[in-house]
Amino acid sequence: MTKMKTASHDMAGLETAPTLYVENGGIRFAYRQLGPSTGTPLVLLQHFSGNIDAWDPAVVNALAVDRPVIAFDNTGVGRSTGQTPDNIAAMARDAVTFIDALGLPKVDLLGFSLGGCVAQQIAAEHGRLVRKLILVGTAPKGGEEHLLAVLQDAFSQTEAPDPRLPLFFTKSPASQSAGLAFLKRVKARTEDRDTDNGKAVTDPQAKALITWCATPDPDRALSRAISQPTLVVSGSHDTMLPADNAYTMFKAMSNAQLMLYPDSGHGALFQYHHLFVSHVQTFLEG
Amino acid sequence: MTKMKTASHDMAGLETAPTLYVENGGIRFAYRQLGPSTGTPLVLLQHFSGNIDAWDPAVVNALAVDRPVIAFDNTGVGRSTGQTPDNIAAMARDAVTFIDALGLPKVDLLGFSLGGCVAQQIAAEHGRLVRKLILVGTAPKGGEEHLLAVLQDAFSQTEAPDPRLPLFFTKSPASQSAGLAFLKRVKARTEDRDTDNGKAVTDPQAKALITWCATPDPDRALSRAISQPTLVVSGSHDTMLPADNAYTMFKAMSNAQLMLYPDSGHGALFQYHHLFVSHVQTFLEG
Lengths: 286, 286
Hints:
The structure is a homodimer. By secondary structure, chain A is an alpha/beta fold. Chain A has a single domain, classed as Alpha/Beta hydrolase fold, catalytic domain (Rossmann fold, 3-Layer(aba) Sandwich). Chain A has an eight-stranded mixed beta sheet, sandwiched between helices. In chain A, helix 2 packs across helix 3. The N terminus of chain A is likely disordered. At the A-B interface, helix 9, strand 8 and helix 11 of A face helix 9, strand 8 and helix 11 of B. Strand 8 of chain A pairs antiparallel with strand 8 of chain B, so a sheet runs across the interface.
């Protein structure tokens, strides 16, 4: 187990911070750490197919003003070694292996989409490790997903400059405009960018997410096993993992707040990044 | 039409501010005004049976730090004259008469429960008058209500020190404790308290609220007619006007944010007053 580097990265943003590496359990994990060195770290769990540079600097850097924020590639993703597993339980184990490698006894988790499933699994199983939980654009076990149909549709829109425009934003001019601004932000880093993911990552990830939603959990046992304060966020018109999932999780969890945003899709947290950051700050500080 | 008094009440709280009066349309309206004299005023629309002193000073005074906040008694309520009408449309007309009496060209509205129905009606009909809308513990036209059953149950709990404990809070120790703190706050004003309401107020109010929910609006025409940015808030376990109403309004409205709070009833805004104020401030400033 390698200890977290202690150099201060207070002034760096996601676009400029160096990519660091830590080894544990036979995996060499790539990560970036932002913000102050004290306070409960917020660990980010990324969406299907995303790497560290798929996070929005507007969200990550703003959250890192008040707390350590850590973005990382889970096993096999981006520049982390190993084979990406095809199930959420293994992804959760690997994420805990990464957190342990940094020697962090207590963290907050922000899981987006696939990362939200992983975050739920960790929170349910590791009550002492997770202080607070933020779930964005995600689904409970046994939830509703339209992943393959929506992905197919998005990638068929060859005129779109990036599949994330149709996938993460609605068709309204306001949402599309926010989408273009988001793309500009995530592409701002030009040197030492993370490695794009191919089918060796996305195939098992798709299987993990689809299996998660296809596995019945009629009593919502997993949601009910999460006792940490939780903030559940979704866009009104998320086509891949509909907002009904968020309402379902809210109702099953004992200590969740629900926030739904208007005229927004899967990328609601990027579209309303000021609002989202404000809500997350209020939640984490409360 | 009488102009709003211009004396500064910046330093007064709801518990200490003088009760003012303004006449328009044959009604003498009682009100209190808090906060600075500049900025878009936030007008509060009160719940079934409530008067000015039923508002929580912790909410009202905190919101008044940054903006004018006006609490008033609508027609027939508390110390306002006239006969309380038995329908939401007339209550909305009366509220606009009051706002006109103060010479306010543009306001934000915070409507709680019955007041939320009135606020929706005003926002839908007076697009220019209402800048932003906050709907708490309320229902759309044609929504779900369990008013009479829940009231009957609450008033049968004779051991409760105040019917608002079982009506506004859940049975959990945390919620009941927040309820006792709320009761202490709303009872802090000892002089010049508003007049309690009897059946001449509550009978027509109950009829108005029940009729509102019993009037079908299958296409959600009223919700869809509201174009103002709207914040919809509800407690997870509101027994009188369930949280499903909030989700229904959010989905029908074009520009609404939804916030649901855990382990809370009809009085979620009082139970989580710090959180609610933070969310309202973020919403109004955004």
